[in-house]
Amino acid sequence: MDQAVEVQDNLVKRCRKGDRLACKQLYEQYARAMFNICLRMVIEPAEAEDILQESFLQVFTHLSGFRGESSIGAWIKRIVINNCLNHLKKRKIRFRPLEEHMDSGPDGSPVDEGAFSLTVDRVREAIRMLPDGYRIVLNLFLVEEYTHREISRMLGLSESAVKTQYHRAKQKVRAILEEKNLDLTGI
C-alpha cells in the first residue's frame, strides 16, 4: 500500500474513533481546497464558508459511511459539491433551455480556442460574472474535471444540455472579456 494512502487511512480510522486531533488534521488538510470549490460555485465568501462548515459537519457525522472506494479527498469533494449544488438549487438557479449547439464565433468562422492567452485574474472575474448555471457547469468540467456525463447526473440534465451549457458559458466568458475591451483576436 502507498505510504500516503496508509497515512490517510490511519487518519480516517482515528477520526472514526473520535480523535479530535485527527479530525482537526483532516479538516486542515482539505478545508482550503474545499473552500475554493465552494467559492467558485457560489461566489459569495460568506455562503462558501457556511457550505464548507456544513460539509465538514456531514463528513464527520457520516464518516462511518466512507467505504474507501475512492480517496477521502474525493469523498469530501463530492459532499462539498453536492452541498453547493443543493444551496444553489434553493436559490432556484436556472439552466438555459437547450437550443442549437454552435461551434463558431460571432462571424460564423470556426473558433480557435488555443489562439489567445489572458491573465488568470481576468478570466476568473469573467467566470464569476456568469449566471449560476453556466458557472457551475464550467467549473465542474474545467476545474473539477468531471465529465459531461457525470455533470448531467449531478444536475439532472441531459448530457447534451450540459454540453450546451458548457459551450454557452465559454461564449459568455468570451463576451464578458470582449466587453472589457481586451484584444481577443482569434477567439
Explain the overall architecture.
It is elongated and about 55 Å long. It starts with a helix and ends in an 8-residue tail after the last helix. Helix content is 66%, strand content 0%. About 9% of the residues have low confidence. Helix 5 packs across helix 8 and helix 6 packs across helix 8. The protein has two domains: 88 residues, Rna Polymerase Sigma Factor, Chain: A (Orthogonal Bundle); 93 residues, Orthogonal Bundle (Arc Repressor Mutant, subunit A), CATH 1.10.10.10. With 187 residues, the protein is mainly α.
Task: Give the key terms.
187 residues, mainly alpha, Arc Repressor Mutant, subunit A, Rna Polymerase Sigma Factor, Chain: A
Layout of SSEs?
Layout: H1 3-16, H2 20-42, H3 45-61, H4 72-90, H5 120-128, H6 132-143, H7 148-155, H8 159-179
**CATH classification, class level of the largest domain:** Mainly Alpha
Instruction: Please name the CATH architecture of the largest domain.
Output: Orthogonal Bundle
Content of β-strand: under 5%
Order of SSEs, N→C? HHHHHHHH
Q: Which radius of gyration do the C-alpha atoms yield?
A: 19 Å
Number of domains: 2
Calculate the terminal CA-CA distance, rounded to whole Å.
Answer: 47 Å
CATH topology of the largest domain: Arc Repressor Mutant, subunit A
| General shape | elongated
Q: State the low-pLDDT regions, or none.
A: 98-107, 111-117
CATH homologous superfamily caption of the largest domain: Winged helix-like DNA-binding domain superfamily/Winged helix DNA-binding domain
> What is the mean predicted local confidence, pLDDT?
83
Q: How many separate helices?
A: 8
- Class derived from helix and strand content: mainly alpha
